[in-house]
Design a protein that fits this description.
The chain is α/β, with parallel strands linked by helices and 276 residues long. The protein is built from eleven helices and eight strands. An eight-stranded mixed β-sheet has the order 1-2-4-3-5-6-7-8, with helices on both faces. Strand 3, helix 1 and strand 4 (64-68) form a beta-alpha-beta unit.
Length: 276
């Protein structure tokens, strides 16, 4: 672990990397510092902050980039609690530790779900949310569908050690992976009331391709559930639609993600709502 800063009030001068304690664990955090708009990156369910490198590079040094690994992902410690509520508390802990009052949240997949929920609870602290292929208001809610999730992870169990090394799985059990996935599906299925009323700007970067293993245009049907909500809540807009699929979007279409972040940050700054 390196600590170029220990005082959040000094966070505007240079990059800080270190561990932020929260609950029974500590999270690996990178904060580039600077006086630009603070952008906080929220990872996919089992991903790590490494997935944001291209987007951060595309945006450049004019922003304050804050990325971190969730519990038992990347360089962060393990915990007794991997729930969605714990992930929301982790955002609070990161912002407090780095002395950030208001931020623009950029989330991919599960991270996009986190971003919308956090913004809905803390609109006065949110400059906006960029959702990278999510969140969409649809999820698996039946016992049969949950059993399908369990089957997927049973088939993947021998691949989990490799997936962890690639930053695509967490350092917890297969059953805990299942629990996180099922909870996320239930939260997505209950998302419509939040998306209808979320009071901050939310910009979607929508993928076009089907993910590996998907079938029957499943993901395209998920994306279509957003369309009526775009009419009902003017805060929701599609900032870009790209050719890549859900899993490759940050790798193949990072410039499009960066452009949507840049446009949203510029809009909020023009309206006199800069972050800190």
């Amino acid at each position: 672990m390196s600590n170029h800063h220990t005082n959040p009030t000094d966070a505007t001068s240079s990059t800080w990397t270190g561990m932020v304690p929260v609950d029974d664990t500590a999270l690996a955090v990178t904060d580039t510092g600077g006086t630009g708009v603070p952008v906080v990156y929220l990872n996919g369910s089992y991903a790590s902050q490494r997935h944001w490198k291209r987007v951060i590079a595309d945006l450049g040094s004019g922003y304050r980039h804050i990325s971190f690994d969730e519990r038992a992902r990347g360089g962060s410690g393990q915990s007794a609690d991997y729930s969605f509520e714990a992930c929301l508390r982790d955002i609070d802990a990161i912002l407090a530790a780095r002395g950030v009052d208001r931020a623009l949240l950029v989330g991919w997949s599960y991270g996009a779900l986190l971003g919308v929920h956090w913004a809905n609870r803390h609109p006065e602290r949110t400059l906006g949310v960029v959702g990278v292929d999510g969140p969409y208001p649809v999820g698996w809610t039946t016992d049969a569908e949950h059993e399908e999730i369990r089957k997927v992870f049973r088939r993947m169990r021998l691949m989990l050690p490799l997936a962890r090394r690639l930053g695509m799985a967490a350092r917890f059990s297969g059953e805990q992976h299942v629990e996180v996935a099922i909870e996320a599906h239930l939260l997505h299925a209950a998302l419509t009331p939040i998306l209808e009323t979320v009071p901050v700007p939310v910009r979607y970067v929508v993928a076009s391709g089907e993910a590996v293993g998907s079938r029957d245009d499943l993901q395209e049907q998920m994306r279509k559930t957003l369309e009526p909500l775009l009419i009902r809540n003017p805060n929701l807009k599609v900032g870009a639609k790209v050719a890549s699929n859900h899993g490759s979007i940050l790798r193949k279409d990072s410039p499009a993600v960066a452009t949507v972040v840049r446009e949203l940050a510029a809009t909020e700054s023009a309206q006199g709502r800069p972050g800190r």
